[in-house]
Amino acid sequence: MRKTFLLIFAVLLQTAIVCFGQQADNSAPAVTNIAGAEYPRILPDLRVMFRIKAPEAERVQIDLGKKYDMEKGGDGFWTATTAPQVPGFHYYSLVIDGVAVADPASDTFFGMSREASGIEIPEAGVDFHLIKDVPHGTVQSKRYFSTKTNSWRRIFVYLPPGYEQNLTKKYPVLYLQHGAGEDETGWVKQGHLDIIMDNLIAEKQAVPMIVVTTNEYVIRNIGAGYNTESTNHFMDLFKDELVDVITPFVNQNYRIENDREHRAIAGLSMGGGTSFRIGMLNPDKFAWVGAFSSSAFRGTNGNIFDAEKQIPGIFTNPEKFNKQLKLLYISSGEQDHSYEYTKKTIETFKEKGLKLEYNYFPGAHEWHVWRKALHDFVPKLFKK
After folding, report:
1. 193-202 helix and 367-377 helix, angle to the nearest 10 degrees
2. Which of 5, 213, 243, 315 shows its CA 20 to 30 Å from the CA of 198?
3. Residues sharing a CB contact under 8 Å with residue 9, sequence separation 6 or more, in sequence order
4. CA distance linking residue 72 with residue 55, whole number of Å
5. What is the pLDDT of residue 78?
6. CA distances from 276 to 75, 230, 238 (A)
7. Ramachandran area for residue 324 (φ above 0: left; ψ -120 to 50: alpha; else beta)
8. How many Å apart are CA 291 and CA 272, to the nearest integer?
9. Would you state the pLDDT for residue 222?
């Protein structure tokens, strides 16, 4: 009788564990799953288990940077377990009979130039990007009409805690750019912008500020690479959109300290290159500049980019930039494809007498590195 009782208890316990989202193998559903979805599941060693129902499919794979073949069971479900994954946010796709699609069990994010599945792999002991019991700001989606593109466009605006209560206080503003294949939603959804800002402000590490995320794509026919005339033209067109349209719109609709000392620009990857070019060429508009994991520093044909050609005077008259800029900040992931080029760029800037601050973070070209860069960059802004 006692043996039977223990067996029943064990079954009930396992059932209860599964009901609360954790199995006997200590796996748990990814936080990026849609409500109620049990898969994908993350194991303690950061392997990921996938389970997909596709009874009529001939072949199913998971593309998580590396492709994993799934095995089909008699019930029509396909399963696979990946190798341990690096902590952070990763796009992924199901590949069903050769066609890449989003996983219906996952939330979707605009990346890779389309809506794609994403999975969050937790990093032990790191919580600066997680929701805490602190005062929270708000994120507004705002439409504006662009006279440059002759179309309606959208920005997202982070307002710090207390913005709605103190109706006389004005705030500095950070204009924050996304990467290639992404859009103005990236920093809010993938980047956890508002959570990072809330936590920094609550800890009194950051000055309360407004953050505006924009869409860099004022044109779509932009090729790969940075140091080409066409790419510079693309970035300069976005500068016109930002300076002539977005900034006046923000100034009219929000309580902004409208001067260069209270205006910053930063971005990741493509947005890092754009922010670097716009900020360095327009110090009368931006006193604080940040470039996270910028491919701009790769240059062309494997060479470091020609900084003096791109930013005239940066080497021949660095004192001008040192005097005008409150901060030039550069960062990169240590496993990023542009890491060595970024290091060389930073060394050259220092040798030429250009003042800057920089940091490197464990990780490749992905969102968790950029969250860390933002977390490191923001506390440096708008300090006297």
Report:
1. 30
2. 243
3. none
4. 8
5. 97
6. 54, 17, 13
7. alpha
8. 4
9. 47
- As a whole number of Å, the CA-based R_g of the chain is 23
How many beta carbons lie within 10 A of that of residue 351, not counting itself?
9
- Say what the pLDDT of residue 24 is: 64
Contact 152, 143 (CB under 8 A): yes
Residues in Cβ contact with 95 at an 8 Å cutoff, skipping those fewer than 6 apart: 59, 60, 61, 62, 63, 67, 101
Amino acid 224: pLDDT: 43
Are 174 and 209 in contact by the 8 Å Cβ rule? The answer is yes
Burial class, 278, CB count within 10 angstroms (exposed 0-12 / middle 13-18 / buried 19+): buried
DSSP state of 244: I
Alpha carbon 375 to its chain's center? 12
How far apart CA 103 and CA 346 sit, in angstroms, is 40
| Chain-centroid distance, C-alpha 74 | 40
Bridge partner list, 158: 139, 211
DSSP state of 122: P
Helical spans, DSSP H, in 256-356:
270-281, 307-310, 318-324, 339-351
**The pairing of beta strand 108-111 with beta strand 88-96:** unpaired
Backbone angles phi, psi at 61, to 5 degrees: -130, 160
Q: Is cis: bond before 40, omega within 30 of 0?
A: yes
Task: Indicate the SS3 state at residue 127.
Answer: coil
Sign of the Cα pseudo-torsion (271, 272, 274, 280, in order)? positive
User: Distances from the Cα of 162 to the Cαs of 198, 212, 213, 366, in angstroms?
Assistant: 11, 17, 20, 32
Of 23, 73, 82, nearest in space to 50 by CA: 82
Please tell me the distance from the alpha carbon of residue 269 to that of residue 246, in angstroms, as a whole number: 21
**Nearest-angstrom CA–CA distance, 15 and 258:** 59
Residues in the chain where the model's pLDDT stays below 70: 1-24, 220-230, 299-304
Residue 162, pLDDT score: 96
Residue with tokens 């090729």: 223
H-helix segments, the chain: 2-19, 186-189, 193-202, 229-241, 247-253, 270-281, 307-310, 318-324, 339-351, 367-377
How far apart CA 129 and CA 374 sit, in angstroms, is 10
Q: What is the 3-state secondary structure (H, E, C) of 37-56?
A: CCCCEECCCCCEEEEEECCC
